[in-house]
Design brief:
single chain, Nucleotidyltransferase, domain 5, elongated, about 500 residues, Rossmann fold, 5-stranded mixed beta sheet, alpha/beta
């Protein structure tokens, strides 16, 4: 028996994995036969580089990574630790149970003796061990060092930053493995992928499109009348008729938005509509995104003597956390002209900047959100400036469960129509990270280092613009002023020349 175990331990990883068994969705025990995608994952992991796997649903990436870690633990002749990490312990235990099923699937002569076998640990005598651990549990991974750590469905973690920090603290020149489907634009996973693409991170990055998966196909129905969009998609992504048939059937069951999120063909597509985002990709078809540096002052255009302006302000405490943002926009052009952004400015000091900008931009109308620190800023501005936005009843703007949807619906309408035709990249990132839940409640990203301050300032500024009269219309086509969404992109481009 010992000779057989030694023989198994010397087998190549893929050969060993191919002899494992798993429990399928029907509850039946079947042999694990790695797909092309799973083989690519294994081959990548064997290089030892930190790896991110972005994938569609049900390609078996978590299963194959568990199989890889189980193989390493089985083969190891040293007490090395491999960890399965999630925010909730129940999720880690579920994945560890996959490895336990693989162990039980082995013929008895090949089952190495286990020192520990419980719901959170599986340890081979004199060898490696697999553990299930959660970043939220007391102690977590802090009590030991792991050689490799797997984080599954990273984008859906309640606290991804804590999760990653826990993993990195436990790794000693080890390998971090992250796998997940996309959740929403600018989520934690998206940020990690962008770091890889820009060279800021050293991860190996794998993306799998649904068409790579051999099971995602159905027999062709000859009665189907294919749309032009479907035929174009098939040509662009080399999809055969059976794949297109499967796609149509799946979309009919779960809806197009959910399909795009869970079964993307490109990474861009995965984040185009994801996590019930409030703004759709097509909402920005008339918007030109301009790149600005993350600095306090950004001036895009000097005041025009014949133009009308408005200012929207989102305030903070100025203590290094949330940002205070002043957004100045031109009614005539639909463009931001000046942006102030800082997390170090007090509400009182912020008022001075607001007054200066308002006077500079032709005595612009000013709307400051009255929530939290905003009231102090409003009172200070009121001492030196009179054109402050008020309701017909003379009240300030309070963001509530009723007013926030109105605020952002107005913003969405004007973005869709082209009335707002330029947005800076920082604000755009924030807008794309806004989500809406099943009850229609608008939510901002809770990911660390994510903010909503610029998006809120833009929405407030747009709201304020509604009450601003245009002085001069000579430089702006009437269709833009009216917010006519039916006009063409060509007209929008004509407008941008001015």
């Amino acid at each position: 028996m010992t000779d057989l175990i030694e023989l198994a331990r010397e087998m190549p990883v893929l050969d060993f994995i191919s002899k494992q068994g798993i429990i399928n969705k029907d509850g039946k025990r079947i042999a694990l036969s790695p797909t092309a995608e799973q083989i690519q994952i294994i081959e990548t992991l064997e290089h030892g580089t930190d790896t991110i796997v972005v994938k569609p649903r049900q390609i078996g990436s978590s299963t194959i990574i568990i199989a890889y870690l189980f193989c390493l633990a089985y083969r190891s002749k040293e007490p090395v630790t491999f960890a399965i990490l999630s925010y909730k312990l129940s999720s880690s235990k579920h994945l560890l149970n996959i490895a336990k099923n693989m162990y039980n699937f082995l013929p008895k002569p090949l089952r190495r003796e286990l020192d520990v076998d419980n719901s959170t640990e599986m340890s081979f005598a004199g060898g490696g061990r697999l553990i299930a651990v959660a970043s939220s549990q007391r102690g977590g991974l802090r009590s030991f060092t792991a050689s490799k750590i797997m984080i599954s469905e990273y984008a859906f973690s309640e606290n991804p930053d804590e999760l990653k920090a826990t993993a990195l603290a436990a790794l000693n020149d080890g390998q971090l493995i992250i796998e997940s489907t996309a959740n929403y634009y600018n989520d934690c996973l998206h940020k990690e992928v962008l770091k890889v693409q820009t060279g800021e991170a050293h991860y190996k990055y794998l993306f799998f499109k649904w068409s790579d998966h051999e099971n995602y196909r159905l027999p062709l129905d000859e009665s189907i009348e294919w749309s032009e969009d479907e035929l174009k998609l098939g040509l662009e992504h080399d999809l055969d008729w059976e794949q297109l048939t499967w796609r149509r059937e799946k979309v009919s069951k779960i809806g197009w938005e959910k399909f795009i999120r869970e079964y993307p063909l490109t990474l861009e597509e995965a984040y185009r509509i994801s996590g019930s985002t409030y703004f759709r990709h097509d909402d920005f078809q008339y918007v030109n995104v301009i790149s600005v540096e993350p600095k306090e002052w950004t001036t895009l255009a000097q005041p025009h003597p014949d133009y009308s302006y408005a200012i929207g302000v989102d305030t903070s405490g100025g203590v290094g956390r949330d940002y205070s943002v002043i957004m100045v926009m031109c009614k005539n052009t639909g463009q931001p002209v000046c942006i102030y952004r800082s997390n170090q400015t007090s509400p009182i000091a912020l008022a001075e900047y607001i007054i200066t900008l308002a006077q500079q931009y032709n005595n612009a109308m000013v709307l400051v959100e009255a929530n939290n620190y905003g009231l102090a800023t409003i009172n200070e501005v009121g001492h030196g400036y009179s054109r402050l936005w008020k309701t017909p009843e003379g009240k300030d703007f309070l963001t509530t469960g009723k007013s926030k949807p109105l605020l952002f619906e107005a913003l969405k309408r004007d973005i869709q129509s082209g009335a707002i035709n330029i947005i800076d990249n920082i604000t755009m990132t924030e807008l794309r990270s806004i989500t809406v839940d099943e009850k229609g409640i608008i939510k901002f990203s809770q990911v660390l280092d994510s903010h909503s301050d610029s998006a809120m300032a833009l929405a407030l500024c747009n709201w304020c613009l509604q009450g601003v009269k245009i002085k001069q219309q000579a430089y702006l086509p009437q269709w833009i002023i009216n917010g006519n969404a039916k006009k063409t992109r060509e007209r929008q481009k004509d407008h941008r020349r001015y």
